[in-house]
Amino acid sequence: MKFGKVEQPELIDFTISEDHPDTQVLLSKQNKTGSPNIFIGCAKWNRQDLKNFYPRGTKDELVYYSSQFNSIELNATFYRIFPAEQYQKWYDKTPEGFKFFPKMTNEVSHLRRLNDKVYEVADRYLEVTSLLKDKLGTIFLQMHNNFNPKNWDRVVQFVEYWPKEFPLAMEFRHTDWFNDPKVAQELYHLLEENNITNVLVDTAGRRDIMHMRLTTNEAFIRYVGANHESDYNRLDDWIDRLSSWKASGLKNIHFFVHQNLELESPLLSAYFIEKLNQKFGTDLTIPQTTLSPQKGLFE
């Protein structure tokens, strides 16, 4: 994942900013009893990207991946709408309780940019994506970097059209969505009123989009490591923040690990899951990887 990549990550202040005030307002309305639903995964499962993850002789990458992780941020669906039988195969290959968090096709977000032609495409996308049935997690829509608040009416129309039975998260990247407090507040209010999750992106070169504003009882976090030793400290900080949110009533944690070079994403994920298990008292499977921390990321 190249978004927000920098050449010298050691110069970046990775401190997680304070919560937006309305995040605590939202969480204060939640029931604080019970355990959160936690799904942690990578963005891809193919062997070419996740080198040193699959044991020698692995015949089916998804079958093995889903034995190690409980979810996947399904980026493949950004590039095309797959035939119905493909979704059925994915469903059949994965165990009970596994979740797919598919990315909306770029025809909606990038090519047509939420214009009035996207609704037929969105309907077609949902028709096949719904075949994931109980294994379908939150769908996420990532807008183009240059999609700015001048397109506000398109956002409103799309949000109001979206069928509420499908959980949706939206990621806005243009800085003007967040520079103007009035624009940001209107966007957050629209998402919250329509039960749409505001995606949080933690990446080196775009600290401005670490706005820490939850709009639903779901933290959908796309974490982008910098292939640098600071990646671990950043994950520790996320454990602390998520623990604070959990204590305040957060019920859904969806955390997906990327890197500029993806090959070590399973190693970072294993570290994160182990630390989270210790902090939360959970027993999520810790992925096994042939890349050891001793040989790790930074030699």
Automatic annotation (TrEMBL):
This is DUF72 domain-containing protein. It comes from the Bacteria. Coiled coil: none annotated.
